[in-house]
Fold:
Amino acid sequence: MTQTGTTTVKRGMAQMQKGGVIMDVANVEQAKVAEAAGAVAVMALERVPSDIRAAGGVARMSDPAMIEAIMKAVTIPVMAKARIGHTAEARILEAIGVDYIDESEVLTPADDNYHINKADFKVPFVCGCRNLSEALRRIGEGASMLRTKGEPGTGNIIEAVRHMEKVNEQIKHVASADPEQLMTISRDLRAPYDLVKQVHDLGKLPVINFAAGGVSTPADAALMMNLGADGIFVGSGIFKSENPAKFAKAIVTATAHPTDYALIAKVSENLGKPMKGIEMSTLTEDQKMADRGI
Amino acid sequence: MHVIIGVLALQGAVSEHLNMVTACGATPRPIKNPTDLKDLDGLIIPGGESTTIRKLLVREQLLDPLKGLVQNGFPVFGTCAGLVLLAQPESLAGLNGTVVRNGFGRQRESFETELTVAGWSKLFHGIFIRAPYLSEVREPAKALVTLADGRIVAAQQDHVLVTSFHPELTSDTRFHQYFIDQIVTPSLTQAS
Structure:
């Protein structure tokens, strides 16, 4: 009996991406630069998060023609973003055959009550989370992979650090709890009991969790890997830097060797300017993407 | 006999293979640079993105040492991306065969199925993720698993074992045990 779209092949796809870097690309040329640098996948979107911030307005799924052109240009997996709760955008992305869908707070949410019922798709989904509550709710909806939300398009790592530390701290709490405490924890986290129980038994999340939202240097990537990230998403950090090809390659090396600081020092030399970045306190509440889709 | 099995740890499903090696009673060792290869009895190349792993092998100056090991009869087991690297003449050239990358299509075509392994009485659960296959293998390589449509998804050439699918994503240790018992252990006896 041959089966496609199973939980195992959807989660397994994320397992194959571990220790790698997934790069946001806005066209075929950038996708080729990412592949040549050693990216494990590319995220095809018309504007990287910092440009979405700058442009304002409603950010939607990218033009399918642009995504398909990238799918033809590279042999590594291609991911694309759908708006939170926008089942039709996700079905369109599935129909053109993208390898992974990011139900993403970087785009303008389409539904502020419900996320997409991701279990229903053959194509796997990745979702952002700031804490274990969000993580387990997204897994409950069928997400096969998670990433920290961080604060996209800021080039500032602090939010991704906060989110990764929060998830880790909450996992430790659940893992060390007594069995009779798990239902109360489930109530307090507003997360499904069976997933709380799984985290308790495994001592970790049942899916892969990457870092995202603010990674802009090789050192940022190493920091997140050493905090326990399974891999790295880089949004604006590469193609908003002075030398994208060198930045991309250096971030790949740092992600593969996150404790080899002599090597990371070497690849960080003379990279040129990273993306400019934004200090968190200068963002107004409605400019914070991480608060979307909780 | 105590056996140390390296798992190439540049990218991909590394921890899954390390756990399988432990479950087989051998000692696993993550391999990140050429010095890690010392006193190793066998090597596993995991699933991951073959283009990424290949680029990192070149960057860390591991491609030539590994190719040397493979050419000199060192036991190597590759799954998915590992199969691609072992079968590509421009990579490790360890198996005479023609590899088709992403041979079953994109992620939505990834699948699970039961497999008949040559010489094994029980079926093996195959998990295929954007998997490659071998369109043919040439002597001395032999097919171990061939799908109904003729695509070869597991093969062996002397000390080189490859699968298109991911035994490391199951709890079935038979391929890892076969590698250790039938390929790694005999190579140690020969050497001593």
Remarks:
- Chain B touches chain A through 37 residues (CB under 8 Å).
- Chain B has one domain: 4-191.
- The domain at 4-191 of chain B is CATH 3.40.50.880 (Rossmann fold).
- The radius of gyration of chain B is 15 Å.
